[in-house]
Amino acid sequence: GAVVSQHPSWVICKSGTSVKIECRSLDFQATTMFWYRQFPKQSLMLMATSNEGSKATYEQGVEKDKFLINHASLTLSTLTVTSAHPEDSSFYICSAAAGATPGHNYGYTFGSGTRLTVV
Amino acid sequence: DAKTTQPPSMDCAEGRAANLPCNHSTISGNEYVYWYRQIHSQGPQYIIHGLKNNETNEMASLIITEDRKSSTLILPHATLRDTAVYYCIVRALLNQGGKLIFGQGTELSVKP
User: Fold this and answer.
1) How far apart are CA A108 and CA A97, in angstroms?
2) Which long-range contacts (CB under 8 A, 24 or more apart) does A8-13 make?
3) CA–CA separation, B10 vs B27, rounded Å?
4) B81 touching A, CB under 8 A?
5) Minimal Cα distance from B94: which residue of A?
6) Which of A23, A26, A33, A43 to mutate to test the interface with B (most CBs of B within 10 A)?
7) What is the pLDDT along chain B (112 residues), one digit of tens a residue?
8) Full DSSP string of B50-94
9) Is the Cβ–Cβ distance between B37 and B84 less than 8 Å?
């Protein structure tokens, strides 16, 4: 149980275009989802917290107009990188909180990540 | 900022126990200790968590000191597939504002 599906697993886009990444909780409802980015040889950096039906909360230094987050349902959150540039190339990972669902670990389950390359 | 301190790297012989330490001297009473690992180019995988008692599951054991200022993750019989970066994280429950903030972790290399 507690599976999070992230799509696509990799994407290459041209500079100036926008890219949407989807994160779905498959067997549980996730009122809260988190988005991270990870550069090579570095740790995960929390970008924002996404709550179903409300605006996302962004960490300091993360541009909310560049990284649009939508959490319209209890099983889906999306991250859109707008007007992408080469410096946005990174590994993006989502995470969903299973909360108090019986059988879950009250922890966060992570998606498999999306490798974004902007050329 | 991350609230934990871990050694940057460790080696372990295949079949032996891997003991990964973590210091969290500023842990609050409502914060749990979580361990995740990340195999290259994959999302982090949950391993185990605890509040104050030692915990064991099919993957590992978690030993938390009585003062809760440090903990040790134990992989009883490490295999080559356990080679990964291991993250120790402290956080409050989600309904208390808990977020997973990753530190630098420990890169564990299991060698034949």
Assistant:
1) 5
2) A8/A114, A9/A112, A9/A113, A9/A114, A9/A115, A10/A114, A10/A115, A10/A116, A10/A117, A11/A114, A11/A115, A11/A116, A11/A117, A12/A117, A12/A118, A12/A119, A13/A84, A13/A116, A13/A117, A13/A118, A13/A119
3) 24
4) no
5) A99
6) A43
7) 558 999 999 999 999 999 999 999 999 888 889 999 999 889 999 899 999 989 999 999 999 999 999 999 999 999 999 999 999 998 876 665 678 889 899 999 999 9
8) ESSS-EE-SS-EEEE-TTSSEEEEEETT--GGG-EEEEEEEEE-G
9) yes
Q: What six digits make up the tokens of A25?
A: 């909780």
Per-residue tokens: A19? 């890219």
**Structure token digits, residue A119:** 């050329």
